[in-house]
Amino acid sequence: DSAYFPVRPVDQLLEKMKKFDFWGITESLQRSSSKNSYHIQSYFMGFSKLARKKGLLNQFMSQYEKYPILSKCGIIEIFEYGMTQWALDLKLKVGALCNLQDCYEYTKKIRKVPDLCRTTPTLDLWDTLIEAEQCPVLKVGLVRDNPKNIFDAVIAKKLLDKSSYKFKLILNNIKRIKTKD
Length: 181
Prior knowledge:
By secondary structure, the chain is mainly alpha-helical. The protein is about 50% helix and about 10% strand. The chain is built from 10 helices and 7 strands. The radius of gyration is 17 Å and the shape is globular.
């Protein structure tokens, strides 16, 4: 419900992620109260057999049972910082499809971006994620709300037209969502 998926082909996604035990599409260094700010963003997570064997998936599910309703900040705290830290504590290999550092450095050459520890990858680096990293996700909130005023529908259409995803589907969805308000 928070992302358009897949806006890029995902045929090789699972193959590419075999090197990790716990993974996501994007990683972040955005700060929180946690001591370790590195985390996998929770809109898309994968668990290897080893991660499941070590109980990480059970931990994930028990958190949903314990906290069936959370604010966005609560979700980030428990399911992004928490799950990533638990995976690291279990000595699992943790990573993401899209390389945060590469996207950040590339985007800095194009436009001003916040410090890396203040960067929300799916908002601040959205176009680089899709173009350079072949990210298969575009966040609904970015298109619907444009919270940082950097989303450009013309650029998005060009990027998505390179794949088989029809940008018109996104426009129709946003129109449908906005008319509900």
